[in-house]
Amino acid sequence: MVEGETIELGDVIMNKNLSVLREYMKQQGLDAVIVPTNDPHFSEYVAAHFKCREWLTGFTGSAGTAVVTHAAAALFTDSRYFLQAEQQLANSGFELKKEGLPESESIPAYLKSRVGEGRVGVDGKLYAVAAFGVLKRDLEPLNLVTVDDPFAKIWSDRPPMPGDKAFLMSDELAGATVTEKLRALKSKLKPDENSIYVISALDEVAWLLNLRGNDVAFTPVNIACAVVDLDADSVHLFINPGKLGVEEARALQKQNVAEHTYGDFELHLETLATGKNVIFNGNRTSVSTQKTAEKTCRKIVVEDGLFGAITVLKAAKNKAEVAGIRRAMIADGVAWVKFWRWLEENIESGEVTEISAAERLRAFRAECPDFLGESFSPIVGYKAHGAIVHYSPTPKSSIKLGCDTFILIDTGAQYRYGTTDITRTLHLGTPSEQEETDYTLVLQGHIRLAMAIFPYGTRGAQLDMLARQPLMQNYMTYLHGTGHGVGHCLCVHEGPQNIRLNENPTVLEENMLTSCEPGLYRPEQYGIRIENLLMTVPAEENEFGKFMKFEALTLCPIDTNAVDTRMLTWQEILYLNTYNVDVYRALVPYLDGDDKAFLHLKTNMV
């Protein structure tokens, strides 16, 4: 899945909520308030309890910042959401500010022109230390101040905090105990004595404690945070009461994990930080947490880099995690073959829609007893909808599928032992010459990256052009990244590695799982994207150094209906045929009858 969110058209609200916020501003002596799309953990997806910006504006996209003064209000968002925001902001009291355009007005410029030298409030729990520092500098001479959560006072029917039970991932599936992970963390940090490590990111807490949950859409995590005592090799877990069962609580206690109430985090942190060095990542820790620690700590130590130590540690999967991911790919591939066959058999009925196709694929995945849910909102785009990179069908937008052009299907799943993300673009009719050319260029870019052999120490930005070159040679490209990291029964988008044009200092290490998803989008016509998940593995080590390569873990045939083999080199044809044959061999033991015959048909050599 391309990083980002989907388009979902929600109901427009009037400006009642905006009026309530402005009354709060008067009471607090604030001239403006900024409301980001964040939770206190800076998650990609946020629980309903934290969708404050959505409640305020009526805009449901996952990226955007609301800015409110006593006389004006605006929603700042990027190009993925311009159309959606225009529709949802109608009659809301908010004007749309389009980010990323040459003429675009920044948030600081917007406020300076409307407020002058007043006080601008932000919820200190919703701004990371690094982001707060940049905003404070850019807003001068305005005075940026932190406030307690305004919506705790003004959002009367606010959804409660999630209450689903947490569950432990077995040490066998995780590949390491909490104690072993604490040892690795300590080795990575190399802390001074008398140090504690603050963890706010939900996926980092989940990885460290082998703890999973269902508090956030598409990501099996719990709303929780943790403080690691690096001298005592113990952990203080802050989570809502009742989320841990008796067995889970006992298992964690045996590994030096003490349970506390989530809402008491800052109260306990003030005590835990007394006389200590407090270490955290400035991009994933709130300014509120920093201010609490500063009251009693000896010294604040902010980690270098965009990501913290745990994100770096969990990016390179261990043997058990790799085995689990392979297992997840089999389950996913079986579901995909059944779905593909169902789609071909039912497409001519005229009753299959973008939504019903997504629902059927989910149903096939759910046949696996270890299926936990989807890893992101499914993208099923037919005709022009396929050209909208982050499109996701809704009851209002969903259309019937047909055979006259491409159907782009980008979906993923969470299993107890792994996370998947796959895109296939299918043409169930007779492709035109342009369609064949476009599809083959995208496929060629996918194969060239997947076939890459590169010296150890290579970064994703150094490989990105391999996927783009076939398109660029024809004066075409795509604007999204080529690849993102994927978690182990965790976030479908995770760092620190990626493959994109933007420079990223992270080296592609052994057992990092990264997507490969070049695409091509013709507005008002169709979109094409082909995505597999690739594992970085050793290739060879000799007198010239250590070389790495990719292994494709995704197990689903690549559709060859629209391939023009005349455009491919013999090496690319060999890769395509070998990949599809490998898929057949991996999946055929798990299929019967017509499904097995269908898989054989789809993996025939070109």
Structure in words:
The chain is α+β, with helices and mostly antiparallel strands and 606 residues long. It has three domains: 16-154, Creatine Amidinohydrolase, Chain A, domain 1, CATH 3.40.350.10; 167-314, Creatinase/prolidase N-terminal domain (Creatine Amidinohydrolase, Chain A, domain 1, 3-Layer(aba) Sandwich); 316-594, Creatine Amidinohydrolase (Alpha-Beta Complex), CATH 3.90.230.10. The protein has a six-stranded mixed beta sheet, sandwiched between helices. Helix 3 (82-88) links the parallel strand 3 and strand 4. Helix 16 runs antiparallel to helix 17 (460-472). The chain is globular. It starts with 15 loop residues before the first helix and ends with a helix. The model is unreliable at 4-13 (pLDDT under 50).
Give me the side-by-side strand order of the main sheet. 4-3-2-1-5-6
* Approximate strand percentage: 15-25%
Summing up helix and strand content along with how strands pair, one would put the structural category as: alpha+beta
Question: What kind of sheet is the major sheet?
Answer: 6 strands, mixed
Give me the CATH architecture of the largest domain, please: Alpha-Beta Complex
Distance between the termini: 27 Å
CATH class of the largest domain: Alpha Beta
Question: Any low-confidence stretches, pLDDT <50, length ≥5?
Answer: 4-13
DSSP helical segment count: 19
Using only C-alpha atoms, the radius of gyration works out to 25 Å
CATH H-level name of the largest domain... which superfamily?
Answer: Creatinase/methionine aminopeptidase superfamily
The CATH topology label of the largest domain is Creatine Amidinohydrolase
Tell me, rounded to a whole number, the average pLDDT.
95
Number of strands: 28
Number of domains: 3
What is the general shape?
globular
Roughly how much helix do the residues carry, as a percent range? Answer: 25-40%
